[in-house]
Each structure stands twice: as structure tokens, then as C-alpha cells.
Specification:
By secondary structure, this protein is of the alpha/beta class. The protein is 32% helix and 29% strand.
């Protein structure tokens, strides 16, 4: 049985406890043993953190001990999956660049704030992770992020939708869903999920389900094929993100 650690907290506007409960339910339906915590001290024991198959952060803003981030980073490098959404993963610990490097991006703006209607466009890539999912509309915050060029982008949204200083630039396609490798570990992110009702949208929930499961598979791969995992860790080559 695979195991997952969900750690929630931070800014209450993102309804972290409700979102954590959704992810708990999704994972338990997939036969995961799930531990849910509302304290960052769950990251304090580095050896215990390495025992999970998956870590799911649901924590917006806040401060964290550098050693806690190091513990998570080392666990992911060893094959533990990391998956999350919206501000719960990429607006987390704004002062910690090591966290941002690991997750693949960080939030900088949401022009128009909540209630913007926009399209999420599924991108054809080497990854089959979103196969069969069609482009869809959402009414929520549209995240503008600074994104690591190393990620594999699986879905995008077009800016600008609303007026603002960014609108004088040419239109840009901003990543919404991506994957990344961190050592032998698999990292998955989706920028949707301002509140629990967005996560409950069937398409969004399915995207997150697939991302959670995909991320959790990395540890088995690292254990079964350690030479390949090391090769991928230092070259970036191997099977697709």
C-alpha cells in the first residue's frame, strides 16, 4: 500500500483544510494510506519524510524552517513524489527559493483577481498524463507565474484576459499544469484551485487525481531501477515527464 502525507495550513482564504480533505478522499479511493497534518513540523523528521510515496503540500504563504525544506527536497530527490495545486504549492514560503526551485515556479499575480473567465488549453506533449481531457473553461483566479524552463507544460491559459500593465505585451500562454523531475522524484503542479469548489470540478479533480498518482509512482521506479534513476537525475534523460 502506498502512503501519502498531506500538510495543510497557511492563508485560510484558500480553504486549505477543505482542499486537503478532497485530496485525502481521492487518495484513499486509490488505496493509499493517508496522513493529514496541519503543522509544518511534519517535515522535521527527515528520515520519516523519506518513507512516504507522496507529499502533498496545501499551504499558502507562511514561513518554514530551512531544514524542513531540505528534508522534503532530499526525500523527493530520492523518489518521493511531490504534487499540489494553486497557492498551496507555488505560493508557498515566498522567501524560500529552494522550495520554488523544487516545485518549478512561483505565483506573482492574478490579474482581475477571482471570478475571471478563461480557458485552460490542454497541450499535446510527450506526456500522456492528460490524454483524453479536452480544453475547458473555468471562472476563478487566473494565475500568472514565474516558471522554471525545465518543466514539461501539459496545459496553458492565454493572457491577457483583463486590462492591466501586463496587457501591453504580446499575448502569452502561461503554464497551468506541469511536471518536473527533482532528482529521482516526480513533481506535479496545477495552478487551478483557488477554493475547494474549483478542485471539485470534475475535470480539475481528474487532473489532480492523475497528477497525484503519477507523482507517487516515482519512488517505485527509483527503487526498481536505481541506475536509471541516477542517470536521469544527472542528465535529465530517460522516460518523459
Amino acid at each position: 500500500m502506498k502512503s501519502a502525507l498531506i500538510v495543510w495550513g497557511g492563508w485560510e482564504g484558500h480553504q486549505p483544510s477543505q482542499v486537503a480533505e478532497i485530496f485525502r478522499s481521492v487518495l484513499e479511493k486509490e488505496d493509499f494510506q493517508v496522513e493529514v497534518s496541519d503543522t509544518l513540523e511534519s517535515f522535521a523528521d527527515g528520515e520519516k519524510v523519506k518513507t512516504y510515496d507522496l507529499i502533498v503540500p496545501v499551504w499558502t504563504m507562511g514561513q518554514i524552517e530551512k531544514q524542513y525544506v531540505r528534508n522534503v527536497s532530499l526525500a523527493v530527490q530520492g523518489g518521493v513524489g511531490l504534487a499540489g495545486c494553486h497557492g498551496g504549492m507555488c505560493d508557498t514560503f515566498r522567501n524560500n527559493v529552494d522550495w520554488q526551485f523544487m516545485t518549478g515556479g512561483n505565483w506573482v499575480a492574478h490579474p482581475g483577481n477571482d471570478g475571471v473567465e478563461y480557458m485552460v488549453n490542454i497541450k499535446h506533449s510527450s506526456s500522456p498524463l492528460l490524454a483524453g481531457i479536452e480544453d475547458f473553461a473555468v471562472k476563478s483566479e487566473q494565475y500568472y507565474l514565474h516558471v522554471d524552463p525545465a518543466v514539461e507544460v501539459l496545459a496553458t491559459t492565454r493572457f491577457p484576459i483583463v486590462p492591466g500593465p501586463h496587457a501591453t505585451n504580446s499575448p502569452v500562454d502561461m503554464p497551468v499544469v506541469w511536471t518536473k523531475r527533482w532528482g529521482a522524484g516526480r513533481v506535479f503542479y496545477c495552478s487551478l484551485g483557488h477554493q475547494a469548489d474549483i478542485i471539485e470540478m470534475p475535470t480539475v479533480k481528474e487532473i489532480m487525481r492523475r497528477g497525484l498518482l503519477w507523482s507517487a509512482e516515482g519512488k517505485d521506479l527509483a527503487v526498481k531501477t536505481p541506475d536509471l534513476a541516477v542517470f536521469e537525475r544527472f542528465t535529465g534523460m530517460g522516460d518523459s515527464n
